[in-house]
Amino acid sequence: MEADDGVAADTSAGTQMGDPGRKYGKVDPNNKNRRICNFCAKPSTGEVYRLKQHLVGAKGKNAVDPLVDEFGLGDEEEECVVTNVKRKSSSVQGNVSKKPFIDNYFSRKPGDILKGRNGGRQQTINEICKRELRGNACKEIARWFYDAGIAFHAATYDSFKSMLEAVAQFGPGFQAPTMHELRVPLLRKEVEETKIEIENHKKEWASKGCSILSDGWRDSTVQKDIVNFLVNSPKGSVFMRSVDVSEITKDAHTLTEMLEKIVDEVGEANVVQVVTDNASNYVKAGKYLEASKPNLYWTPRAAHCLDLMLEDIGKTKKIKGMLKLAMSLDLLMKIKKPTMGYIYAAMKRAKNTIKASFKREKQYAKAIEIIDRRWQCQLGRPLHATRYFLNPEYYYPNAEEAKKGEIIGAVVKCIARLNPDESIQDKISLQLDKYQHAEGLFGDKMAIRQRSIRSPADWWNAFGDDTPELQKFVIRVLSLTCSATGCERNWGVFQQLHTKTRNRLAQSRLNDLVLLSTIVH
Fold first, then answer.
1. Rounded to two decimals, what is the model's pTM?
2. Which of 210, 370, 396, 479 has the smallest C-beta neighbourhood within 10 Å, fewest atoms?
3. 421: DSSP letter
4. Predicted confidence (pLDDT) at residue 97 exceeds the cutoff of 70
């Protein structure tokens, strides 16, 4: 009786303590140093320690009790095991797993885990729960997209994925930012970080030059006239600001003042050209700007000039649609190239195509007259002729023609205007002879092969080391854009941000949002 009472007391105490060795075993009434398994009644020497080894099937010790799984002990132990060790059927006797027991407490490498998944590994409870949690999270995200009217393609942004990862790392209880935090402190902080990134663009402006792009836009939502200003360089375009000119007289003098402020902010030494609209007030403003800033050029938008040419030609009754089509295909497609070394040659090719489309000169003379008139008053700038001369793809096959007065004269003017230092002008002029006669690296077989393969600026960067001053000048001239498409792209950003429900955005806050959109995306 005493022994039985001792066993009962020990078992009760063990059950309360939650110790598996005492919960699933009892003291042998004939030998208090031995424990008897509650599942198979097999005795184990060494008291509780040996009984625990028997229960979990430690290698080299007593074999695992095959009845353990039937009573749920295996499920209890799985919570502590990182890897999923699959037990054998209860009808099979012997050791459960050949894997050392200590290895169960170390996580596997990601590659091994993926291999296990491919091999049809059974999913754990944790994985099933994670899948359900993700489904619920995706449902809530989708509801927010639908409720706020967010475009579906916003889910492709890297910033969207970064946002979700940051929230997941915070864990439960994350408090979303308030409207005030989004409008003021967080926006201000993001703009400050973006301006730090713009410093890298400013270094590019100093080394390779830049273009200031300006174009007007009509905000139909609130009936405002807005002028956008961007800075373009080989590194990309940077939004500077937009100005509300609804209540300002947009005459040449007012536009000149705005352009001068942007030039001073960017740095006159860094600006090669200012690209604007072709309206008469902008044309006058461009001339005033060239007079006040003697070391840069004003250039009208090439695409707008071409549109005006086509409109003028279309108004001529004798010229049929074939002429308009020929000019559009041959000229406009060429103008879409990213650098400025192609406009002059494309214009020549377009005129030749027009002439070849008709048998008699009377049929195309009017069209050529219209093109020449538009070219001389707007596109016939020294920069275009200089870029044609410095483009190896066009210069070397047409060297004799390129050396004629109009083109070489434009090159001399451009060198003098963009390089105020006379000593630099002299060095560039002397080094230009090497380029014209294909001496040094310019005559290398690789350089000759790649004249029409590389872009003009890349070609000079690769093979112009023998003429450093000329190389720097050419890269500044050839790396620039010939249109204000960056401004046009911002129109879409403005329309997206300045909707009927958000038409009270302050101009400064609207500028900040556009700046973030152009830099981040």
1. 0.61
2. 396
3. -
4. no
